Amino acid sequence: MPEEPAGGDLSRLRQLNAVAVLRESRGTQPLTLTELSKRTGLSRASTEDVARDLLGRGWLAEVAPTPGTVGRPARRYRFNSGAGRLLGVDVGGHKILALVTDLDGEVLHQARVEVPAEAGRRERLAAVDRCITKALTAAGGEGGGASIWATGVATTGLVDGTGKVMLSDSLPEWSGVDLGRQVRRLVPGAVRVENDCKLAALAETWRGVARYAKDVVFLLAGLRTGAGLIIDGKLHRGFANWSGEIGALPAAGWQQAPTHLHDWLSKHPTTGPDGFERVFVAARAGDQGAQRAVEEYVKDLAVGASALVLTLDPQLVVIGGGFSRSADVMVEPLRRELERWCLRTPEIRVSAFADEGVALGAVRMALDEVETAITDGLRP
Amino acid sequence: MPEEPAGGDLSRLRQLNAVAVLRESRGTQPLTLTELSKRTGLSRASTEDVARDLLGRGWLAEVAPTPGTVGRPARRYRFNSGAGRLLGVDVGGHKILALVTDLDGEVLHQARVEVPAEAGRRERLAAVDRCITKALTAAGGEGGGASIWATGVATTGLVDGTGKVMLSDSLPEWSGVDLGRQVRRLVPGAVRVENDCKLAALAETWRGVARYAKDVVFLLAGLRTGAGLIIDGKLHRGFANWSGEIGALPAAGWQQAPTHLHDWLSKHPTTGPDGFERVFVAARAGDQGAQRAVEEYVKDLAVGASALVLTLDPQLVVIGGGFSRSADVMVEPLRRELERWCLRTPEIRVSAFADEGVALGAVRMALDEVETAITDGLRP
Membrane-spanning residues where (chains A, B) (predicted)? Predict the structure, then answer.
């Protein structure tokens, strides 16, 4: 670590010291000033100085001494994850899901609002409003929104830096929606909107099955097919935030993939929701036509997946989305297809989230906003 | 910048200070101790201390004062790029090219040895030896090798971390060659071997047309088709160094692409080397059959290229390899095809290197080795 700059910017130095103390204090164990000083490499005096400031802001909390300690115990401190709240919202095809968490990302409250797939722009935006309001009310009555430091919003489609949906194939009337502005009406703090596949990938490396991996291809297999990429431990967005869109290429097979499931369904009509699930159920029960349909679906899925794997050589492929619940009939055929095309087949894992992965990824993005704001020395 | 650690490791601190001074002293202008102190944030005393050590090692050089300076001029220092040499070797299909450079990567000597495409392992390895020996002799007679601090070697095929070629489709008997061991016999210092497409990509961001871009797809279009990826300013290798191999997927079109050129050539036989060049020459001269062959070639090339672009959303695609010399008949059709498939078409540029790009990338990799070694405080 370089020594103290001769004529450096002291307020900048204080900020960085504060970030160092905050980072170290986010562990599971509360720390004494001596321990904080040792871990950050700051002098005892600087550590005390910074801790006083952070206590004043409410970002650091003093922890009660362990009962029974002999003599006068040293004061111990930890990051005050209760100082603020984060909001993560998944604007999906069939549901809106909103999570309110503390600053460690622990979920405190959640709200869910069902919405029909064919809902237009106005109906879906009203559902977004309802769901967020429900979550905020649960989090603290009328004033629940005031404690939100930052918000992440996930949506299908391509999103620009301001929170506008540039292009959405799967939802009616959704291209052009200014989702950022819509949500900013309801909460204070930064609001950032991002594509749902990208956020699902982020959630897997944060709290999911990809925690140990630095290069990950997340594959959304469901009513839509999509991808999110983690490269060198970071979400890869691309130059204009249009990464992961290999499905737009007909040769990648993803446009054709669900037609095999559609074809089987049209030959076996019954009523009931979630049609695709029926194909997997029938395949599992031994229906040969359904098994063939799943096989053909997987074959097409594997072409684009192989293109991603051959391009990036990831450590891990994570399968998420609605069909990942049918992993038992899908993953082994997919592995065989990947082995057929790829020079090196990576590990394949199935997402362990029910359907909260995307919303958790939105929380993680909100947390990134807070951490950046702290590093930049701004009160979030 | 955090302050000096209370009980930190001082030798580690000195190393980091030395790296800071070296980094600042690599600019175009020599600097005084006062300027070095200001730029590194180190105290005057520490700067003097570090500079003395680096002068002793020969890594820093004192620059003669500007004539006509009034009074006693302050001493000025700069990085001594002449303290050592780097070697970059391109083991290609038709040639071996070796570059000897200074520590700034300026080419001082080069040697080239032609080798037939059908040459087997032994013949090609002998040519590698001959080429390196020629370059080292030019660099300093019999003892020319002694000044080499690090060596980068480029080869077709997939390479492991020790410098062994794991798989090569294009060169006979080349899979399994221990190229690292071969080259280590001839030079001291670290020897690192890497795939040629990856190193060509590296060269473009270092000294080529991609200097300004952080996300780049390099496309090798020639007798072989291949790709190298720069992501977030760094060469993307992948988990097992197998990235960029989308050409292995038949659906990507690259295996089929050259057959269109072959077909035209087989219908228009003449003698002469470099057959493929003839198709482009004929297309440029207005031969409609040749134009169609180039068109079909580009169409197939564009499928895999679009898959890369849709996956990564790069700022820039660089076209290199033998066919890039026929950019006038190839780039516009390629742009049209990319526009057809991609959601956002990135900039397309043609490599400005003749055929030294890959060897320059090997030099850059050798320079990385030296910089890592300096950071790690080891004498390279």
Answer: none
Q: Please report, rounded to a whole number, the percentage of residues in chain A having pLDDT higher than 70.
A: 91
- Do B71 and B89 lie in one domain? The reply is no
Residue B99, pLDDT > 90, answer yes
Task: Work out the number of other CB atoms within 10 angstroms of the CB of residue B285.
Answer: 9
What's the burial of A79, exposed, middle or buried (CB within 10 Å: 0-12/13-18/19+)?
buried
Nearest-CA distance from B100 to chain A in Å? Answer: 32
Do A70 and A98 reside in the same domain of the chain?
Answer: no
| Distance separating alpha carbons of residues A45 and A49, to the nearest angstrom | 6
Lowest average pLDDT, out of A3-17, B99-113, B277-291, B347-361, goes to: A3-17
CA distance B178 to B158: 12
**pLDDT per residue over A130-158, tens digit each?**
999 999 998 885 556 678 999 999 999 99
Mark whether B267 and B167 lie in a shared domain: no
Same domain? For A239 and A190 the reply is no
Q: Determine, yes or no, domain membership for A4.
A: no
Q: Which of A360-364, B93-97, B312-316 has the lowest mean pLDDT?
A: B93-97
Residue whose structure tokens are 């990509």: B201
Q: H-type helices in chain A, by residue range?
A: 10-24, 33-40, 44-57, 121-140, 179-184, 196-206, 257-267, 275-284, 288-312, 327-341, 357-375
Task: Identify from B197, B239, B306 which residue to disrupt to test chain A contact, counting A C-beta atoms within 10 A and taking the largest count.
Answer: B239
Q: How distant is the Cα of B276 from the closest Cα of chain A, in angstroms?
A: 27
List pLDDT tens digits, range B68-97. 666 777 889 998 988 889 999 999 989 999
pLDDT score at A7: 36
* Cα distances (angstroms) measured from residue A251 to each of B90, B300, B343: 34, 11, 15
Q: Which residue of A has its CA nearest to B217?
A: A311
A283 and A167 within one domain: no
- Tell me, yes or no, whether B160 and B219 share the same domain: no
What pLDDT sits at residue B12? Answer: 63
Of A79, A94, A116, the one marking the end of a domain is A79
**For residue A73, which of A88, A63, A81 has the smallest C-alpha distance?**
A63
Range of the domain at B117: 85-201+357-375
**Residue B6: what pLDDT?**
36
Last residue of a domain, one of B36, B63, B79: B79
Q: What angle do CA A166, A171, A176 make, to 5 degrees?
A: 25
Same domain, A58 and A131: no
Residues B235-252: tens digit of each pLDDT: 999 999 999 999 999 999
Q: Can you spell out the DSSP letters for A66-110?
A: PTT-SSSPPPEEEE-TTS-EEEEEEE-SSEEEEEEE-TT--EEEE
Least confident of A122-131, B8-17, B118-127: B8-17
CATH of the domain at A239: 3.30.420.40
Given the DSSP bridges, would you call strands A148-155 and A190-195 parallel, antiparallel or unpaired? parallel
Tell me if A43 and B252 make a contact (CB, 8 A cut-off): no
Total count of domains within chain A: 3
Concatenating the DSSP letter of every residue in A4-64 gives --TT--HHHHHHHHHHHHHHHTTSSS-EEHHHHHHHHT--HHHHHHHHHHHHHHTSEEEEP
Q: What is the pLDDT of residue B96?
A: 97
Residue B190: count other Cβ atoms within 10 Å of its Cβ: 20
Q: Nearest CB to B16: which of A1, A242, A246?
A: A1
